[in-house]
Each structure stands twice: as C-alpha cells, then as structure tokens.
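Regression check, BES case 491:
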Amino acid sequence: MPLNVQATSGEFSAAAVDVLAVFATEGDLAKQKPLSELNKALGGGLLEHAGHVDFTGKSEQTLDVVTLGKIKPKHVIVIGLGKKDAITAAALRSYAAVAARFANSVMAKSLALALPDPSADLRPVAEGAKLGAYRFSKYFTGDRVPKSELREVLVYVGRATPAHRKQLALGAAVADAVIIARDAVNEPPNELYPLAMAEIARKIAKKGKLKIQVFDKKAIQQKGMKLLYAVGQGSVHEPCFIHMSYVPKKAKKKIVFVGKGLTFDSGGLCIKPAPGMGDMKSDMGGAAAVLGLMAAVSAIAPSVEVHGVIASAENMPDAGAYRPGDVFGSLSGKTVEIVNTDAEGRLVLADALTYASRLKPDVIIDAATLTGACMVALGKTCSAFYTADDDLAGKFAGSARAVGEQFWRMPLLDDLREQLKSDVADLKHTGERWGGSISAALFLREFVEGAAWIHCDIAGPVLGDRAKGVYPKGGTGHPVLTFLDVVESMG
Ligand code: BES
Ligand code: MN
Ligand code: ZN
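Current build output:
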C-alpha cells in the first residue's frame, strides 16, 4: 500500500494516530511551542524526561516517549532541528524522514507531523516522509517480511489549501523518483544486469512520456563505442547504452546527465579483493541517479530540455575479457591503452561523454562511482565535483546545499595530465595512485567536446553505512535531489 501524505489542520495532540512528531530547536525547551503544550498534555513528564536524557534540541537528536493513554497518539517523538534560524527546506525534509523512519520502527500505521513554519512549502515534507518510510524488503520471506508499514502521514498546517495538496503531490512524485534510484542500487547484481536496467528505463519512459533509445551490444559496436564494448566483453550479460529524453516545447536550455552503469564491478582480470566486493553492485549508482532524475523530470515538467544517458556493462574476468595492454579506439576517435581493467568506469563514461557532447547541450553533468581515491579524500558521505566553469560550480554547489546533499569541489590539476600519456596510444586510462580521483577526471575531460561540463565522483554517498536524515542504510538515491535542483534552477 502506498503511503498517503495529507495536509490537515486542528489540534494535533488530539489526533488519532500512532505517532506524533514535534520539533525542538536549541534553547529553553519550556518556552517552545508546541513542545510546552504537549508537555502540559502529558502531565509535565516530557520536559522532565528531556532533562534526564540531555535532549537539547540539537540537530539529529531525538527523544521518544510512549504516551500510555495520556493523549491520543501512542508515541511522541521530539526531533531536534538545531539552531532556530537554520530551519531550511532541507531540514524539513530530514525532519519528516526521521519521523517516518521512527514510525516504521515502532510498527506505526499513522503519523502526525507538527510543522515549525505553518507557511512552509510542503513539497520537501512529503519528500522526507516518503523517503524516511522507505525500506528495501522485496527479498524477505517469512519472519523477515515487515509486519507493519506506515500508511498515512498527516501534516499539520494552519489551514489546508489546494496549494498544499499540489506541493504534497509533487513531493510524493519526487520521492518516488529518488526511490527508483535507491531500489536500483539495492537490487542484487544477478537480477540487475545491463539489459534489466534498460527495462527499468523503458518503464520510466513509458510512464513519464519520455523518448527512449536503447543500444544493445551490436548497436554499441556499430556506433563505434569501442570502450563500452571492451569493458562489457568479459561478461555473459551484454552491455547496453540508454538514452532517455525529455523535450518540452519552448526550452531555452539543454542539459545532458550521464551515468556510469556498472551493474557489477569485479575489477575484471585485475580482480578486486573479496572483502567488500559485493558492494560493487552499487557501481551503477550514477546510472541509478540518472534514472531517478528522468522520472522526477517527467513529473515536474520543467522548461528545460533534459537528456539522460547511461553506459551500462558488467566488468568480469573471463577468457573473452579485455586485458591490461590492450589498445582500443573510442567513439571520439582517440585511442586508449588499458592499464588496469578495474578502471573501467572512465572507459564507459568516455564514450557516453562523447555521445552526450554530440547532442550539443549547454551543460553535461556526469555521475559515477568512479574512484576509491575520492573516498579517501572526502570520506564516504561526500561526493566530489569537478568543473572548469566557476559560475557553474557555484550554481551546482548551491543546489547541493539547498537540498542537503554533500558535495565538495575538487581541482582539475593540469600537471597530472602527463600521467595519462601512453607510449603506444593517444592516452593511458590511469595515472598514479596519488590524486587518483583527479587523474580520472582529467581522463574524462579528453572526451567532452564543446559543452560546459561537471563530473561528479559519487563513490561514497550512493551507499550508506547507516540511516542518516533522509538517507537510509544501503542505496541512498544520492544525488537525484541535487540534479533535480540544478534542472529546476535552470528553467
Ligand atoms: N567502482 C570502482 C570505484 C569504487 C571503489 C567505488 C570503491 C566505490 C567504492 C572503480 O571502478 C575502480 O575500481 N576504481 C579503481 C581505479 C584504479 C584501478 C585506478 C580504484 O579506485 O581503485
Ligand atoms: Mn573498477
Ligand atoms: Zn567501477
């Protein structure tokens, strides 16, 4: 049953719901509404309990109590929002997500949400509620099947209006789009291989009235995408190339998103060590984000032309696999000497970036779980982005900040370019270990023709170690919200 998020008005402490969520900010809790009123309704116990457990309203702090019949809701959760002036749309999204996740954890079916700002846009609230309630449970049987799921969220506003309804509907659609990305990342690699990803894309295109083209192995060869072909040649699962497009009537700008879609990256002949290899099912996180973004774009219908391009393959060791020492041409015409078959992402992206360039867009943004080096540099919860365009960098960083996703700009250091010189081909595809995320970006740059370009190395944040804010453990849906904000800010 899908989760229903609705705006309502009235006295929330009297709501017949399983969980009531209220907020608190740092500072004297006794002076905060509606906390103080709720405290009174509970006979004073709430603030006393807050004192005992040192709940101060800091961001990410929560306080939950069982009401034992004192008021209608069975549970109350107080969620810290941090400083009072820091209540942004991102904070609201996260607040709703934490509340919904808690509701699921206590087997609640209904949740009432008090809002810090009754005039706030409810779109992020609906996004947060649906994203917080998300669980990936399709492969559970018997006892492991969740026994209960959150069905209804009541968002308390001064007076519910049709505008609220519209905001909530948009938020629900955006959350569903982010969930497409999460599901794809969580899906096991025996189920989600390149052509299975193309099927997901076809479904999204059909539902959202998008154009779609899928090139199979033969078409990839015919078109001259030799690098994508090479990476896929060691797998029994054929590679594929997906191009989805949203073309509104009077678009002033055209943007292409490109995703790395390695449905599994074993490393190929340069095979990875066993520990953690299973996480390489998430090596299609960039492609997943492109799928989610295209679903969101079809729901929001912005006045920008948006293309989603995915290069998908499985990187496997096999008698037919590509090897170190091989030299291949590419869609761009440049030749590449293979150094390490585990640096496959930049190869499939190279052909995809050339293809994207030939669509003659204003901007290309690629997303790829590209390097372990990026995770060494920025940790597991922050992505890198690279661009030569300062103005675009500012806008992109602004979008990430606005939606609460962590991105940090890294430099395209020209002096590392010489590491990519090959004795036998135009380019080698890897450089030194040091600065590995940067040299990967420099390699990609060789295949971008004309357009302004941002490269995102999202190796860390696509997969979460633990739930935090809007993100669950496992597939997070990062960076769909950032990309959507970029599109919406353009047109
Ligand atoms: N998919 C990996 C990068 C990765 C590693 C993503 C860990 C998420 C977690 C990528 O294809 C890869 O293997 N990169 C190599 C490049 C190296 C061989 C130059 C790496 O980072 O070790
Ligand atoms: Mn690899
Ligand atoms: Zn990879």
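Comparison notes: The first helix runs from residue 35 to 41. The CA atoms of residues 371 and 437 lie 6 Å apart. No diff flagged against the previous build.
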